[in-house]
Amino acid sequence: FIVALFCCMLTAPAHTVLNEFKSWKQMDFQFPSVTIRQQAIDNELFVPANIIPIDVAVDYRDSLQNTRTFVTTPRFSTGVPVTYVRMSDTVITPYPSYNWHNSHGRDCEGLTSVFRVAIDECQQMWILDSGKIGAIQHCQPQLLVFNLRNDKLVHRYRFDKSLYRDTSLFLTPVSSHCLDIFCIILNTFRC
């Protein structure tokens, strides 16, 4: 399949055509080294056909050149080497770094499977991690908040088992304004 990012001005007339920002036939990621990339391929931890981008968030900056675009690539199956990336014209980079992604559910201190994200007016990014790879719950679902000014983790909340089921699907986090911060998350599940 083809991945394409489009952008348009909200003030443009209704008949305006969207402009393609970037497109790929397959997503390829920046790995720490060629050796690590090849190991991921050999161990079936990187299967380009398994990568499905789901959500996008834009960190608007003072100029288009400094604006950053982020995309989620949930691990609906194995073969997805990273689950949250920053995109540029030339490279797709794991966010905040490759080390946050490389455990594939063996270490719950990183990111397991990012499904939805939101960026608030305080330049904070809210990341919803399901903790699942395929149907297997490797880690507790978690909500992480990163300061986009320095890309540092400022808060992590791990969902208690009483708040989710194996079939839970947490949807888009919505946060409030900077002075009174709270987050609303929808938990859908099959009975």
Describe this structure in words.
By secondary structure, this protein is mainly beta. The chain contains one helix and 14 strands; from the N terminus they run E-E-H-E-E-E-E-E-E-E-E-E-E-E-E. It has one helix spanning 34-42, and strands spanning 3-7, 19-24, 56-59, 68-72, 84-87, 92-94, 114-119, 124-129, 132-133, 136-137, 142-147, 152-158, 169-175, 183-188. Strands 3-4-5-6 form a four-stranded antiparallel sheet, with no helix packed on it. The protein has a four-stranded antiparallel sheet with strand order 7-8-11-12, with no helix packed on it. A two-stranded antiparallel sheet has the order 1-2. Strand 5 and strand 6 (92-94) form a beta hairpin. The longest helix has 9 residues, at 34-42. It is globular and about 40 Å long. 25% of the residues are buried.
Count of beta strands: 14
Overall pLDDT level: 81
Largest sheet composition: 4 strands, antiparallel
DSSP summary: helix tally: 1
Shape: globular
Strand line-up of the largest beta sheet: 3-4-5-6
Structural class: mainly beta
Taken in chain order, the helices and strands follow as: EEHEEEEEEEEEEEE
As a percent range, the share of helical residues equals: under 10%
Measured between the Cα atoms of the first and last residue, the distance is 33 Å
Tell me the fraction of residues in β-strands, as a range.
Answer: 35-45%
Give the low-pLDDT segments: 1-12
Q: Evaluate the radius of gyration.
A: 17 Å
